[in-house]
């Protein structure tokens, strides 16, 4: 196949990337940036009532966060240190967003805020309280918790570390 020879003859840098300049540092793949570990926004560690479901397209269907079982009035905690960048209503629901180092933004809803936009918050600080009325919540109240880096939604559970014991499970993947 003629195209196979073209691929084999391609330079050592990745196709579609900028070739290395002698003496310059290698390009950084933004997807390879190590993301911080986040703490749970509710205490004690809550039950997940609905899991993350990444959309196939930017405007496609999906669930861009997780829903956590809560009780109305339960304190919502900052998942990491950051700055409150939004506290208001979106589509009729009270939402809060906090920007963190590494380009992450966490979002919490429905929340009655106790902090103001522009306020610096620390990990574990009370941001507000959970309100009842999250659509599709099967318990008294649910906190929808989302994480985004730029335009990419990330599963919050992939960034969360629970205190306690960890066990490795067998993996049936490749060699």
TrEMBL record:
Q: Which UniProt keywords apply?
A: Signal
Query: Which GO terms fall under molecular function for this chain's record?
Result: metalloendopeptidase activity
The residue ranges of the M23ase beta-sheet core domain are 62-156
Query: Which Pfam families has this protein been placed in?
Result: Peptidase_M23
Q: What name does the UniProt record give this protein?
A: Peptidase family M23
């Amino acid at each position: 196949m003629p195209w196979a020879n073209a691929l084999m003859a391609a330079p050592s840098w990745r196709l579609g990337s900028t070739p290395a300049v002698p003496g310059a540092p290698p390009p950084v793949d933004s997807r390879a940036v190590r993301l911080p570990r986040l703490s749970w926004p509710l205490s004690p560690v809550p039950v997940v009532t609905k899991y993350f479901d990444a959309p196939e397209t930017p405007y496609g269907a999906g669930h861009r966060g997780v829903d956590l079982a809560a009780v109305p009035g339960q304190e919502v905690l900052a998942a990491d240190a950051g700055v409150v960048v939004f506290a208001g209503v979106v589509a009729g629901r009270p939402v809060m967003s906090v920007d963190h180092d590494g380009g992450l933004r966490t979002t919490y809803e429905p929340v009655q805020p106790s902090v103001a936009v522009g306020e610096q918050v620390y990990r574990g600080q009370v941001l507000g309280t959970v309100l009842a009325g999250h659509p599709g919540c099967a318990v008294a109240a649910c906190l929808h918790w989302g994480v985004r880096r730029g335009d990419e939604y990330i599963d919050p559970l992939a960034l969360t570390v629970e205190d306690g014991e960890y066990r490795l499970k067998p993996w049936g993947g490749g060699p």
